[in-house]
Amino acid sequence: MIRDTLKFDVGQTPPPHTTLCIAFMHVLLVFDAIIFIPNVLGKTTDIAPQTLAFITFAIIIVAAVFTFLQSRTRLGLGAGFVLFTGSYSAFLLCSLDAVKMGGMPLLATMSLLTAPVVFLYTFFIRFFRHIITPAVGGVVILLIATSMVPIGLGLWAGETASVTRLGIGAVTVLILTLMMLFAPPALRLWGPLLAMGGGYGAAALTGELHFEHAVHAAWFGLPQLSAWPGLELDLHSAHLPLFLAFGMGMVASMIESTGNIMLVQQISTRDFRRVSYDRVQGGLYCDGLSKITAALLGTAVPSLYCDNLPLIEMTGVASRRVGAVGAAILLLLAFMPKVSGVILDMPGPVIGGFLIVIAALLFHAGFGLVAMTRLNNQHGLILGLSLVVGLVAGGRSFFPGVAPSTLSPLLQNSVAMGGFTAFLLSTLAYLAPRRGLTGVFRADPAEVRSLHDLLASGRHRLHLPQDRFNVLSLCCEEVFLHMLGQGGRGGEDSVSLRVSRIEEGWSVEMICGHMMDDINNFALPESLLQASPDELGQLGLVLFSQYARDVKHMEISGYSYISFLI
Length: 566
Fold this sequence. Notes:
Blueprint: H1 16-34, H2 36-44, H3 49-70, E1 85-87, H4 92-114, H5 116-123, H6 134-157, H7 163-182, H8 185-188, H9 191-205, H10 212-216, H11 240-268, H12 277-297, E2 302-304, H13 310-315, H14 320-335, H15 337-344, H16 348-371, H17 377-395, H18 408-411, H19 414-431, E3 436-442, H20 448-457, H21 466-485, E4 494-502, E5 505-512, H22 533-536, H23 539-547, E6 549-556, E7 559-565
Helix pairs in contact: 1-14, 2-3, 2-4, 3-12, 3-14, 4-11, 4-12, 5-12, 6-11, 6-16, 6-17, 6-19, 7-9, 7-16, 9-16, 11-12, 11-19, 17-19, 20-21, 21-23
């Protein structure tokens, strides 16, 4: 997939002034969400002011550090893309319950105890490759988009909707939409900033621009370090429902973060071919570590955001340097309460109108992820049901009052419930019994005969006619030899084969324990007479490509997975 709209992809470096402005735009969009849970906790519970100041400072520091780490890939930590971190709204109600039950120390302990769920999933992610797919990630993104629409409209209208607020939001939406649709690439880069400027100007002219937070905040400040809430060590059975609620929140966060990392890969790479699960793993490890760090600091549970990712498509700038500079801006804001107060004072109609356009772009991105997977009736039904369940949960009108109040933050969360449904149904579909055969072979060309013998022995079980059997044998042989030629280590390595009869035909997956070039990355030599030995070696893949359908090549944790349909 070639993305011509990208001016700077993830590995390129835009000019410093461009990087700074776009990083600031990202921060403008996510800063309010970063400190969302501490703000709500401060307004709805009896947390001491100095404790509230500390946990707010701590979540901004966590956001800054792990946003920077997400832009790196060293030591397998970080996805290497622009991914911002901040407090996660799915934990809101269970966080409120924790604070009411045992204060901030209990919230921190629950976060610490359930965070290992993310690490376990990440370590064993290769076993979930058929379950958490780009299509599932796309459904999660679509649910995020649907949940953002009422939020954006609520901010736009406010408590008392008026023509003035309608006009301010309309100015923001109109400028941003026109810039994206008709502006030349050089000007489109500044579309989001111009839209915000137009919205601020309209708010100032109509008297809707107020600086309530900024006026009372200090220019520079540090919280009292003695206000660290600590951890709750006296746990008992009454805390079990709370523990389960936090555990479900971790799973929801894990599924959503997987979708976000898949999405940012798709929109940040000019020549995007496939999702890199190694990048997904690096991003999830970083996300899990952010949850551990936040728990130790006694602040809210963080997660990855996708709300700001459409800015990449709006501006055409996906450089990871934007993430690093955005992290530096967050770090400064942690020590400058007055500047952060100005961001919090952004007029509701401006940010609401902006979120409406972002939701529209997230719909486009979500459909793009879903389209990466060839959907049969089973997969289509799973994704459709997941979307419906998410929409019903978000509507909060299905048997209200029946579910336990301790689980309401998740049962009424569209992203969490839709993601859980997709995860559960995909798992059941994968584990369902079906006709098939499996085999393991040494990484040795002499094993080709054993491969053919296995296929022949299972021919009747798979209901393979002779012509399809010949095609299957040919394709499996070519993939087997390709895997051997790309790094097989003789008896030290092996190749696994799994063939299943499915609705569309016969599904094949072959696995080996080393990395290799993409099986789809080959080209015919211009002249067979002048072709090099390496080029001649590609002729088998050319033949394979003529018979195999829906060829996918994944690399996860040092393993290569090649699947195709016959």
